[in-house]
Fold these 3 entries.
Entry 1:
Amino acid sequence: MSAEFLRFGGVIHAIILRAAADSKAGIEFFTPPEFSQQLALMSHPAGKAIAPHFHNPVPREVLFTQEALFIRRGRLRVDFYGPDLRPLGSSELGPGDVILLASGGHGFEALEDVEMVEVKQGPYAGDSDKTRFNPMR
């Protein structure tokens, strides 16, 4: 599967996994080790066993929130912004698409009624968790 890497100024702002893309057998990791969220696609045949396990406590430092959105239905436009608050580009997502928002600013517009699942580091810290801004043009 080929993930879409949205880079602006050499920085990965987002990684998109399209619903229609083919996957290869096994586990394919898309994120670099310095990301605080890990994005992978797992594809296994029927009967494949994954050994029972638990996760050990491993201290990690998270400086910036990274979030993944899973589009269940509808269409969503994601707009990307640079540190100067200027627009960098946009991408449309549809049912089954997944996006990892890794860096930079972002905003959304529901192009249709949309239902999505968000996964990010928590707990949500309220107003101290994000800075809202008016984009520059």
Entry 2:
Amino acid sequence: MTAAGIGSPHHGGAPIAVVGLHGGHVYGPDALDALAGADVVVGSPRQLSSTASLRSPGAETVVLAGPLDPLFGRVADASRDGRAVCVLASGDPGFFGIVRTLAARVGSALLRVHPAPSAVSLAFARLGLSWDDAAVVSAHGRLLGDAVRAVRSSSQPSVAVLTSPDSPPQVVAAALIAAGEPTGCEAAAAVASRLGEPDEVVTVSDLAAIAGGSFDPMSVLVLTGRARRPAGPSLAWGLAEAEFDHREGMITKAEVRAVALGKLDLPPCGVLWDVGAGSGSVGIECGRLRPGLDIFAVERDPAQATRIRSNAARHRVSLTVTEGAAPDALVGLPDPDRVFVGGGGPEVLDAAIGRLRPGGVVVAAYAIVDRALKAAAMLGNVVELSVSRGVSTDGLGVRLRSENPVFVCWGPDGGAGA
């Protein structure tokens, strides 16, 4: 029995060779034989031109351009008819390459993959660096913000980013700097372009200089010397209030914050709203624990909004501050996976619940009993937190000073009961 997705063909037929090229060269005798024996050769105009002398004079050539689905249909039909097909690709076609989409169409059991060196391996080779501890991120076919979050959430000391026409190296570099990626002497960066071609260029610099430059969009951006961070979330949360600039009393207390973070059950990525953010302490701690989250701090007080930006920069957390009063300020935000409500009435909570993605969680904190009871009815769960902190009594010992009770509500209902 064959495991699902491993060698399960969609149809019978002749094997389909996928041959990787580097600088127009084919790697290995098996790859040469697959190309020479092909009845149909598929590739870009440059690939077809560089391999003209290696294929059979009678082989049909198909230009790899336009929508892939009709093209893969022709490949599947040729294979089904018993014709030998060779699909040309760049570098290692199984590494962010055509193998994934082709296998989804024809089945991996039909594929015979012959890789050349990948662009990432070549980029690190040109720099004289190992890359067994590097993370690789692709900016092809995905939003720039998603690629940036993938880089920022990586704990690896080196990262390679495969750039694209929509996200060329300088744009990726600028977005990384805006998200808090270190620049200057503590971290180096390089752009490797047109690897293996006569006009190959490798530029070694720093992220700030690359952000101000202009590069071939189809390149590899390499970041090295990044400070290694522990993999996964830190076990320390509920930071002291002194860790955040705040207006006196206008901050979620550390103990309440710690409970709220636990109830949020933060996913590795997604969208989080911190509504009525105040100093931004909750959203910032979420960003420290889960750098892959896209965090929106909503605050109506301009002075507090300025504090949020300052606190986020201090803790090297990337977030977006939306100035305005909820629920109106929530209208233009992407739908959330997690919401923390630190201020506002039932209408704010109702708006958050109405926009919540499937499987999402809302956590709200209240000092006023009436609001907490309404929130508990809407969310399904509530706990009251009474905290007393030890304070010195001028050498006589320690006494307990009570903080105001706070109610934490969470749901939708279905989590741990109240």
Entry 3:
Amino acid sequence: MTTGVLPSGEARPSQRGEEFEKEVTRGVEILRGDPKAAIRKLSWPMIVAILLIAAYNLADAIWVAGLGADALAGVGFVTPLFMILIGLSNGLGAGATSAVARRIGARDKKGADNAALHSMLISFGISVILMGILLAFLRPILLMFGAGSVIGYAMEYGRIIFLGTILILLVQMAYAILRAEGDTKRTMYAIAISAVLNFILDPLFIYGLDLGVAGAAWATVLSVAVVTIPLTYWFFIKRDTYVTLSPRKFSFDPRISRDILRVGLPASIEFLVMSLVSIIINALLVQISGTDAVAVYTSGWRIVMFALVPLVGIATSIVSVAGAAYGSREYGKIKVAFRYSTVIGVMIAISTGLLTFLLAPYISSVFTYSSESAHLIPSFILFFQTMCLFYPFAVLGMFSGSVFQGTGRGFNSLIITILRNIVFIVVFIYLFGIVLGFGEFGGLYRYSCRGYPWGDCRISLG
């Protein structure tokens, strides 16, 4: 097997090969092996994990829907801001996964440890700044989004959610490090703990303790806080991960920071662009159809993301596999992984789109079970039957972006995202939704066909 020189300028790591072999874990063996097998083995735990995330995000919407359309819309106005937070954590996580995986592929154990520690430090610093900004300017931002009539619900939910900013980013970074070393099973276990707890706390806090939308927010934050317990145990007590998170291993290197941010910042900006597009759509919907349309759109996307879970799981695994292959200079493995994933992804996407279309009336019922939200049934059905059209077209964008991230070329993915979303989505939303008078679903139809909603459909492990 050949060894590589990392783009950040580290020395050729073959001299550290013996140390690497002694400490190698099962996950690392998978990363270094057959790329097709690696995609299969790494993807299924991520699919289960993201399925659980989508399920408890859906549970939030279902329980909040029982409070009425205004409460649902209030939470919906916070969603773009929350997606910016999740997008930033996912973007930084992609940078960490790429940097650590490339060093693992290059057999640089010391470099992998140091890159992981740099990632945690960067994540903490950014989360502190972001939390302060969000809490200080939450009300004017929400009013700017058009949440005037439901600002009370939006503020009640948003204040609590953004108090958990530091926890959310650090937990996401821990997940990213586990994925980088091919340990997607433990990521799945941690997320399962968080999801099950959220399922339990949602109805208890919202209705049992009569906290309303604040209860949904507290359930989310506490479920993230609890998951730090197993993560702390694995990294600092049991210490059986390949990557070692010890302060003694840390040695500041600006090249490592640049390497992480070279992928992490463009990936985060991609999520920011997607969130801004969501904000534009919310403003369009308020202008055309009022806050009910926002409730349908933001809640409906929870189902769409649920349907995209298999694709997101595969895309996440591609980052690790491509990163390890690039670090070891086995470039042919990257092509094999991409082509194999694309074939599987297209087949899954077509099947998912058909099922979503056929089951739209039944899916809509989960958001319209109360008398306050029953009038939204026709809008939900039309939303699902329209938006399912984009599933097959999402595959290439998701998977190519993952390859760019895995190989340290985050800027390439960012350029494609900006062109797609700013040049095509915004223009066509305005043209079909307002100029041609097709209304809310005219704009959303073009959105589904021309681009990807929310974070380029990449992983969200909030």
